[in-house]
Amino acid sequence: MAIKTEEMVLNMGPQHPSTHGVLRLELILEGELIVDVKPHVGYLHRCFEKHCEAMTYPQVVPYTDRMDYLSSMYNNFGYAVAVERLLGIEVPERVEYIRVIMGELQRIASHLVAIGTYGLDIGAFTPFLYCFRDRERILSLFEMTCGARLLYNYIWVGGLSHDLHPDFVRLTRDFLNDFKPTIKELNNLLSYNKIFIERTANVGVLPLDTAINYGMTGPNLRASGLAFDLRREDPYSIYDRFDFNIPVGEGTHGTVGDCWDRYYVRVLEMYESIRIIEQALDKLPEGDVTSAIPKRIKPPKGTIYTRVENPRGELGYFIISDGSLNPFRVKVRGPSFISLELMGELCKGHLVSDVVAVLGSIDIVLGEVDR
Amino acid sequence: MSIYDVIFYLFAILTIGSGYLVVTSKNIVHSAFYLLFTLFGVAGLYVLLAADFIAIVQLMVYVGGILILLLFGVMLTNKVTDVKIRTGTIHIIPAVIGTGLLMGVIVSMMLRTNWKSEPGELPFTTTYGLGRILLTDYVLVFELLAMLLLIALIGAASIARRDNE
Amino acid sequence: MKKAEAIFEILKNKFPDADIQIDSETPTEPIISIPPKRVYDISLFLRDEEGLLFDSLMCLSGVDDANGEKIKQEDDSEIIKGGTLSVYYHLYSVSLKHKVTIKTSADRENPEVDSVEPVWKTADWHEREAYDMFGIIFLNHPNLQRILMPYDWDAGYPLRKDYKNPEFYKGMKVPY
Amino acid sequence: MYELLKDIFGNDIIAYIIGAALPLFVFILPFALFAVYLERKISAFMQDRLGPMRTGPYGLLQTIADILKLIQKEDITASETDKKFFNLAPYLVFAGSYAAFAAIPFSGMYIGSNVDVGIFFIVAISSLVVAGLLMAGWASNNKYSLLGAMRSAAQIISYEIPTVLIILTIVMVTGTLSLEKISQMQTAYFWNWMIFGGAGWGLTKFLLFPFMVVAFIIFYISSLAEVNRTPFDIPEAESELVAGYHTEYSGMKFAMFFLSEYANMFAVSAIAVTLFLGGYQSPFGYLGNTLGISWLIPIEQLFWFTSKGIFFVTIQMWLRWTLPRLRVDQLMAVCWKYLIPYAFVNLIIVGIITLL
Amino acid sequence: MKQYFKNTWEGLYTVFVGMIITFKHLFVPSVTIQYPSVKVPLPERVRNRLYVNMDDCIGCDQCARACPVNCITIETVKSLPEEDLGKTSNGKKKALWVTKFDIDIAKCCYCQLCVFPCPTECIYMTDVYEFAEFERNNLIFNFATLTADEAEEKIINYEKMMAEKEAQKAAAAKAKAEAAAKTKKEDNSTEKNNGKEKDSE
Amino acid sequence: MGLLDQQFSDSNIVITKAEDLMNWARLSSLWQLGFGLACCAIEMMATSASHYDFDRFGVIPRPSPRQSDIIIISGTVTLKMALRIKRLYEQMPDPKYIISMGSCSNCGGPYWEHGYHVLKGVDRVIPVDVFVPGCPPRPEALLEGLLKLQEKIRMETLRKKSV
Amino acid sequence: MLTEFGKIFIFLLLAIGFVGIALFAAKLIRPHRPTKEKLLIYECGENVEGSPWVKFNIRFYVVALIFLIFDVEVVLLFPWALTYQEFGFYGFLVGVIFLLILGLGMAYEWRKGDLNWDRTKPNIPELSKILTNKNVSNVKIDEQIKES
Amino acid sequence: MIEVGLNHYLVVSSILFSLGVYGVVTRKNAVMVLMGLELILNAANINFIAFAKYGNFGLGGQAMALFVIILAAAEAAIALAIVLNLYKTFSNVNVDEIDKLKE
Ligand code: SF4
Ligand code: SF4
Ligand code: SF4
Q: Number of folded domains in chain E?
């Protein structure tokens, strides 16, 4: 009989520095070894879907903001695309371009938080603050455009709430130029740091077939080696007009699909987003952004499932319309919700410290998990 | 009573008092912690006996090593149901009487015997002297100790590892 | 790449005994409806059949169809009797790049649906959520308990159209 | 001075307390507070921030406010803790880390206790800290605390081996265990420092130099681990174990852990300085010698010693705000698989060199 | 073996690289905004506390209907025909007394949805963000310019008028029953509302 | 029985001075319980980040409630979370303070009407000292809330409150 | 006479005294308002499940064990390091043999993997293990993706 | 009161010794027995060193004490490893019960 360390149940969260909000992980430990991880969610369940049923279509937009609060723009975007498809309306060119610019800026901002907090989880405090410093500049761009720093309510069904600020293009270009060296610095400081690599490489390896079966999407799936990006795969808006690469995990320092890959895919995606934004800025047409906004949104009876590639993966909106002013049912398929499901599988057999590494690498936002 | 005496009594009381607690406390982890003070007290006694090097070795090996190992051992092997780790005791009364007798005998023997008590000329610092002894008189012991430690290391590790694969 | 109609034909041929229908009237996406107790077989078939290979479940949503009889209570609230609760499955095939929407409806009073958790692991939490929100019972689900609401929530299923808030939860006032 | 006080009081104990121990205390305590301030400022500047600004000019009073606040805080001893040991642990930890200062030579005139086995004593007394930490962790009856304490203990004891091996290397070169003597050996100019191969101009010096650098690096790394600093701060890793072994401690008891942590940082830096970088010796001669004012020399020495010490404390902070932290198994691997073998080989090579 | 030395080297080297980066940042000027002493100007579109310019408000209730969280409460009373409420700045005629215009800013989600539908552009978001309070009730802002007494008065006035009208209508109703019944219905509903308000006050 | 538990009936200069000193220490070293709930937490993080730098005010996050003085409820408090928040608050040693940040924790915010699982205001479970409005409040607004709190602490007194 | 160790002892006493005084001073000032919740053990706001005083990971123990032996070894080496130069090469040899013998032990431990913290391989989730029902498609997924 | 001398140390050591014996005899727990043993060894060591000082044997006594400490360490390591093994086999470290279990 081998010596059996008694199993110990250790709670991580809901108040814990590294659970990225209010998540409770119930770790079952054998010494420091993880036997099982049970995520308990719902501490931030804010009844989004119930609210949708009581709101008119435009009124839902501010609530989508609050779902995945790190990528509010993209939530608006996805919702707008879904309702537009339901209504069957076209939006002006300029709107599409601005949406893409905003969406990609949001992607950078969101990835910056993901990377920064990941550094924090691994124990490096400084990269976190560098990331937030740069993110602050994106936020000020957003604020200039729509007046809010975090929850924008900017992309509306059929259009946008405001046109771009006259300085926006110039400032964005400035920002992008300053930002590229910063990513390099970040890489040197964190990504290529030996300690960081040791902590993340070969940890929490997610094989491709499991990822697909678990419905993993976004950077997490790409890190497992599949170049699957909805912007390519199932194009919405005008993404088919841009030239960008889809970074995939290559297992540079360990196995394909480990935490380092998941982390690094995000870093590379920031480069791609920069490219998309630059192209979009170049081609940005003139026009009116509010012209296509319907006065009364009253879609026909029917259902629609629309998905967009939000910074965390496939954000799906399933909307059932009963022909009235309010949606009959809105269901959101959040990428974090699905990623978190895998936590238990990924952590088994690792040490306590690795839980933090794995959790950080799948980059969840509890607002979206719980809605 | 000189200051030397005061310190001696202090350490003696510390040693014996916590030694008593070691053997009597119900909770084995408590025992281990009390052992810390006993060992510390003994180290103090060594210093008083002009054995500075040994005193520090005592601190380092006993407090820093054996005690920690014991603590880990305790934490590893004891099934702790709720709060207290209880260790059973057997036949307390005979044991008390027996050891009491034993103590009496030894103490009286110690006191009766007329030890040739003449403070020797110990060098104040002993490390250097110990080093010389180790390299001259005890050089074989020195190497043998290395062997012993090697065996202990391998033995202990393999026993601890056994069928833990 | 297969259209929903083609998939419907395949299913029809494969499961002649099951009541499978297609509703292509919705302007946006055709929906294939299948009976709740055959969900497991059919989804396993959808996943594993050559040429279909729906290897990923994008989304699983419970819906309260609210098509039953509405009864007014004395305190002005409504409860719904009869009708159905539905589950929508949005499937996607990563390898073949086609998608399909499947729907199944179960009685509101006894909403039992086969679990697809053994087919797509991701359904685990989705189904728990549907259970939590609508009280749809997924047969053979390994761990069907509340997920978002507190485990000891006993005031019903909040996303049902006739849900009513309790006044207090553990001493905390719930309504504003 | 000590003699003078002895004459006045007619009792060496009181004289010692007033003349040596208290001043040292008075020095170390504010140092810990200052170090906290320094750390916050350094981290802030590294992160393009400002750090404490609003409490006193440039936030200078920040840590004083902190400690004053901690005094006012309620002291919670949770009902399921093992109260006796819970209360005892801060004493042990604090005493253990402060006793180390007794043997550190701050200047030629100023050393708490010129004990002959000085460096050995410092290593040994730190085991009190280990026991204290384990006690704190165990008595807290908190899982995070216990895990943290276990990790802490395992870490500190493991890293004691490379530390001691390097100390052995130095002892082999210098032939003494007394820190005072080691400091004296590296007198006057920086090329006499141990890291440059010690005093004298023989072949040995040049042969020793690279190995001394290696030794220094190993020593510094393991001393980082001994004081639980990043990248070895897993025992109190915020992102995993909340606050490690002092999770349950509040108020003044927590302050004791806090103070001893920062005092420890200075202690290990001081040891590194003494062993490798000339201790209290000035790198380029003494003003006092040039001017012929002999009482200036100890003051200069004190100045050099503290500034060197603080310099290395600063580097510790610098590292902390740069690096992520290791995992517990990697931590052990670094110690057992890297540092110890290197130190081992280094020791033997240095031994051969000294025989030449 | 090679891996062993490579690890050692990489460990030391990358740490060194990192240290250089952070060292450089020691001399990068900080980006901190020293808030209470320095306040950066906010962009013009910034969305903070709501403000209602009551001079322009016509009490059309559009904003309250647009608000997703229902944090605007507006109560209005029809003005008497002889009262002239003036015009708004963009030339709309005011016809209602706004007896109550409360915004519970504690509930507001700063989505700006209420701003767009306003026909007179009198509700807008300002750049005031410093209004933390010790009491939550202080966060309910009353914009109505009428005092409670005045509001009371307006309601009574209106009711009086309605009563008179009613009397007239009652007389007229005999002549044209159907038409009168229709108007009555409408009036009743408004009256009902007013009655309710009165109760609550 | 500590000094802070006492209440003096009359004030003298010593008490006033001691009071001032203690209040000063308390208000300048508010260690925050590192803990975020929802979107507001992101703004709270932004407040501790370089641009706004909480550290200037002496606010540093402590992971354990045992060592913190202030808890910033930053986000939506759900029913499931409320009891935990209450416990965390309880587990902080006295004296302790609460800032309620954002509409959600003030009164349920956008979720006050249909939020069947949202606690409508964190003051239903724990006593709030300062309400910071906003959704999310700008970092400056949070800082202003903190300044308000400091003001409040400065006014605290050991003297018996005249009833 | 006050020996050097006496000074250290005084120092220790002073440190302990300081802690005592500080804690006592704090006791005079701080409030004391325990409640039941406050006195619960902290665990992220959740209920504590089970005691932490459980049997612990054997790895800590093995580390302590190896440490102990090496600790003892370096302790023995201290007197040697002080004096070996006096004996020249002979002295050195004695120490080196000692060291090498223990180095052997170290090498043995290393080979046996006792220096590794955990010997279990982290488990990589494999779909075939997770899914219970027969699964034909998974192999094909990979193939088809590669083709496309 | 007489000045502290050899006898004082001897008395302390013998008391410690008896305590150790008491511990070994009364405790069932193997780790506890080990602690008792440590006490005994310490008592012996005090004697060694006391005689080294008062008996004028030079450093021989101290060297002996040093060896004893080292032996104690080795012993503790092995003994604890054995205890661990006993625990593995019997899930118990109570000596008498293990005795019974053997049969
Ligand atoms: S900003 Fe939004 S929430 Fe606030 S009052 Fe206007 S519409 Fe309502
Ligand atoms: S929409 Fe404008 S005019 Fe109409 S009630 Fe609101 S503020 Fe007044
Ligand atoms: S107040 Fe607004 S920003 Fe803050 S948590 Fe609530 S919804 Fe999010």
A: 2
- The parent domain of residue H61 ranges over 6-90
Using the Cβ of H11 and the Cβ atoms of chain G, whether some distance falls under 8 Å is answered with no
Do C and B touch, 3+ Cβ pairs within 8 Å? The answer is no
Please give the tally of structural domains in chain H.
1
pLDDT number for residue G136? 46
pLDDT digits (tens, 9 = 90+) for D245-280: 778 888 788 888 888 888 888 888 888 888 888 777
Within 8 A of H17 by CB-CB distance, chain B residues are 103, 106
Complex ipTM, two decimals?
0.84
Q: Is residue E3 classed exposed, middle or buried when 0-12, 13-18 and 19+ CB atoms within 10 A define those classes?
A: exposed
The protein residue whose alpha carbon is closest to atom 8 in ligand 1 is E67
Give the nearest chain C residue to G140 (CA atoms): C95
pLDDT tens digits, F73-106: 888 888 888 888 888 888 888 788 888 888 888 8
What residue ranges of chain C have pLDDT lower than 70?
A: 1-2, 25-28
What are the beta bridge partners of residue A12?
A25
Q: Which domain CATH number covers A194?
A: 1.10.645.10
Tell me the whole-structure pTM to 2 decimals. Answer: 0.86
Partner residue opposite A153 with nearest CB, options E14, E42, E112: E112
CA distance F59 to F70: 9
**In which domain, by residue range, is E139 found?**
50-151
Which own/partner pairs from H2-6 qualify as long-range (CB within 8 Å, at least 24 positions apart)? H3/B2, H3/B5, H4/B4, H4/B5, H4/B8, H4/B9, H5/B117, H5/H54, H6/B115, H6/B117, H6/H50, H6/H51, H6/H53, H6/H54, H6/H55
Amino acid at B127: T
Q: Which residues of F touch C150 (CB under 8 A)?
A: 79-80
Looking at the structure, tell me whether residues D304 and D197 fall in a common domain.
yes
- pLDDT band at residue H48 under the 50/70/90 scheme: confident
Whether A265 is covered by a domain: the verdict is yes
Say yes or no to pLDDT of B82 above 50.
no
Q: Do D68 and D84 reside in the same domain of the chain?
A: no
CB-closest option in B29, B60, B128 to G75: B60
The model's pLDDT over D32-76, given as tens digits with 9 standing for 90+, comes to 888 888 888 888 888 888 878 777 777 788 888 888 888 888 877
**Looking at residue D111, what DSSP letter applies?**
B
Question: Does one domain contain both D112 and D165?
Answer: yes
The boundaries of the domain holding residue D21 are: 1-72
| Positions in chain G short of pLDDT 70 | 1-4, 44-58, 114-122, 127-148
Under the banding of pLDDT at 50, 70 and 90, the label for residue B78 is low
The whole domain housing A169 covers 45-369
Residues having CB closer than 6 A to ligand 1 are: E 50, 66-67, 69, 71-72, 103, 108-114
Neighbour count for residue C80 (Cβ, 10 Å): 17
The token duo for E8 is 């050692």
CA distance G22 to chain F (A): 14
- D164 and D40 in one domain? no
- Based on the fold, state whether residues E8 and E87 are members of the same structural domain: no
Residues enclosing ligand 3, CB less than 6 A? Answer: A 66, 151; E 109; F 38-40, 75-76, 102-104, 109-110, 135-136
Q: Does residue F87 sit at the C interface (CB-CB below 8 Å)?
A: no
From A224, A298, A284, A213, select the one nearest A256 (Cα to Cα): A224
Q: Which amino acid is at D309?
A: G
Q: Which residues of G touch F88 (CB under 8 A)?
A: 45
> Domains of chain B, with CATH numbers?
1-87 (1.20.120.1200)
Q: Which residue of F has its CA nearest to C166?
A: F116
Q: What is the CATH number of the domain that holds H79?
A: 1.10.287.3510
Domain total for chain D? 2
> Quick one: pLDDT at residue G3?
66
* E97 burial via Cβ count (<10 Å: 0-12, 13-18, 19+): buried
